[in-house]
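A further point concerns the way the authors explain their paired sequence and structure data. The central task, working out the C-alpha cells from the amino acid sequence alone, is never made concrete. I therefore recommend that a typical entry be quoted early in the introduction. An entry of this sort, consisting of the sequence and the corresponding C-alpha cells, reads as follows:
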Amino acid sequence: MSATDAGFLYLDRPHAPLQIASLLVLEQAVGIEALVARIEARIWRAPRYAQRAMPVPLALGHPAWETAPDFDARDHIRRWALPSPGGEHELMELAARLLEQPLQRDRPLWEMHAIEGRHDGRAALLIKVHHCMVDGLSGLRLLDEILDTSIGVADPLPVPRSRRRASGPGDLVRRALGDGMRRQLRSAAALSSLLRRPGKAREAIRGLMDAAWSAVHLATGEIPVMPWNAALGARRQLYFTSLPLDVINAVRHARGATVNDVVLCGLAGGLHRYLKGIGVRTRTLELTALVPVSLRSPEEAAAFGNRISAILVPLAVDVEDEVARLSATRAITTRLKSAGAWTGIDALLQLLDDLPPGLVAMVGRGLGSVRIANLIATNVPGPREARFLCSRRVDAIYPIVPIADGLGLGLAVFSYAGTLYVGLNADPLLVPDLEKLGRSIEAAFAELRSRN
C-alpha cells in the first residue's frame, strides 16, 4: 500500500470514516441473490475488492493488501426497506444513517446496501468504499465491472478461488522490509540519475521547494471560519439534486468557460445565497474549496489506489451577479492552471513515500482538526450512456464525498447519461439546513441558465 493510500486509513476516525460512496437509483429492485451472483462472477476483474488491509507489526511498513482467506460477497451486501411514505427524504435519511457506520477492518473495505420500498416502485443501491482503496476515478472501476451497457448480459461462471492461508506477523514483516529496501534502492537510483543530469536535479529541487511552500501555505493560510469548519459529530445529512448536462454545456459554450468553471460557479452562487440567508456577510468574503485533481495517465485509468493531488480554489462567493461570478471563476481557474497549482501538494504527497511508515502513521493518527480549506468539492466524469444492473436500468448516480474534522461540508458532482448529479454531505449539527443550501445551488444554476 502506498503512503497516500495508507494515509487515508491513518486519518480515518470512528466518527468520521473516510468512505467514498455513491447512491444508484434503479428502475426496479435487484434481488440479493442476483446481486451476490453478479459480484461473485465479476470480482476477479477487480481483485482489490476481495482483499483486506493487513497492519504490519511495529509499523515497519504501511498496511499490506492480501486476499481475504474467507471472502464471501454476502458479508458485504445488506437489504433495507424504506419507511413510509418511501420518498426522497426517507431515502436520503437512510443513506445518511448507513454512511455513518465505519467499515469493518477485518474484511475487504466495501459494502453494498440494497434499498427497497420507494413509493414510485423504484429501488436504490448505496455503495461504500474506503478511500484507501480508490479515488474518484478508480472508484469507477467497480461500476464498470458490475454494470452493463445493455440488458440481458449474462454473467460468466464464478472463478473458483482456492482458500489461502492468512499471512502471519512474520510474513507481513518480511514483506514490509522488502518494500522498504526497494524504496531505498529506488531513492538511490533516482539520486544517481539526478547527479548525472543537472537539469533533472534542478527540476527535483523545484519540486521540493513547491512541497515546502505548500506545507507552509497549508499551515499558515488565512481561512475564514464557517459554521461547518469545526470538529464533526457522528451524524450525517445528505441532499441530492440534478442538473441537465446540455444546460451546463450551453452556458459554457456561450461564456467561453469549461464544465468545471460552470460547476464551481454554481456551487459558489449557492453558497452566496445560503450564507446571506443565514446572516453571514459575503462582501469581500473568500471561501476556499479543496478540489482533488487526478494525476492518472491513460495507462493508469483502471489501476486501484489513489493517484491524486489537489488544488485550493478560491470561490467567488462575494459576487452578486451570476454572469460576473462565472467570469471571476473562469479567471481564477485559468490562473491556477497556468501556475500548475497542484504540483506543490503533489510533491508533498510524494515525499510521504520516503518517510518511515511508522512516522506517517503516528502523524496521521494523531492529527486533529486542521482547516486547510472551507469545504471539499469534487467533479468526476461518468458514463455518457445509460447503464444496467442485472437488466435494471440505472436511472441516476448520486456521488458522496467524505468529510472530516475541520472540513464539515462536501459537495460532489458526477456526470451520467446526460445529467449532472450533485450530492451534498454535512454534519447536521454544523449545517442543520442542508436542504436550504441545496435549493440555493439549484437557484444559482437556474439564474445562469436564464441569463444564457
